[in-house]
Description:
The complex is a heterodimer. By secondary structure, chain A is an all-beta fold. Chain A is built from no helices and eleven strands. In chain A, strands 2, 4, 5, 9, 10 and 11 form a six-stranded mixed beta sheet that branches. A five-stranded antiparallel beta sheet of chain A has the order 1-3-8-7-6, with no helix packed on it. In chain A, β7 (about 60-65) and β8 form a beta hairpin. Chain A is globular, with a radius of gyration of 14 Å. Helices cover about 0% and strands about 50% of the residues of chain B. In chain B, strands 2, 4, 5, 6, 9, 10 and 11 form a seven-stranded mixed beta sheet that branches. Chain B has a four-stranded antiparallel beta sheet with strand order 1-3-8-7, with no helix packed on it.
Amino acid sequence: QQQVKQSPQxxxxxxxxxxxxxxxxxxxxxxxxxxxxxxxxxxxxxLIAIRPDVSEKKEGRFTISFNKSAKQFSLHIMxxxxxxxxxxxxxxxxxxxxTSYGKLTFGQGxxxxxxx
Amino acid sequence: xxxxxxxxxxxxxGTGKKITLECSQTMGHDKMYWYQQDxxxxxHLIHYSYGVNSTEKGxxxxxxxxxxxxxxxFPLTLESAxxxxxxxxxxxxxxGGTGEYFGPGTRLTVT
Lengths: 116, 111
């Protein structure tokens, strides 16, 4: 019930295209859903995050779409650029209360390649 | 600005040696974490701490140990390194229910 399932495992997109990565969760106690971007040899960096009281959040070319009833959320990268090539992880954390508060459960990761 | 530091960045060490991976954060975050990650693969939580003098094992069993004597410092120790410990170790911190901030990682190779 703690799992977050991410797909696809890898994604190839042409420059200027839209990259879409999907995640699904089971635990309805999750209430914070961040996305991380990781370049080779670096630690993951927080990219954008959403809480379940909104259905969409946009920051520049990055948008999270959230479907609470389906327990799914996705990352959309508009006008994808070669510099966006990285591994992307979705994650989820629990509501306040208890020692697990704030501890993230990560998806399996998606390797995105954007061709010039 | 989120500042979390890890040293060393790279370590090559022989089997049986004791090693300590350092992690420090300057944000005053109450929670800190250690993850193990093979290249391009999932992040596996091996230890976490929700405050000084409190540590818990993570989802992935690990032979390493941790301590949290000061808020800003969360070192990880391997008493006797083995080739199976070869991996990247990532430290992170967070405040409450917001996202985790990651350090740059330590790439450990045990020969």
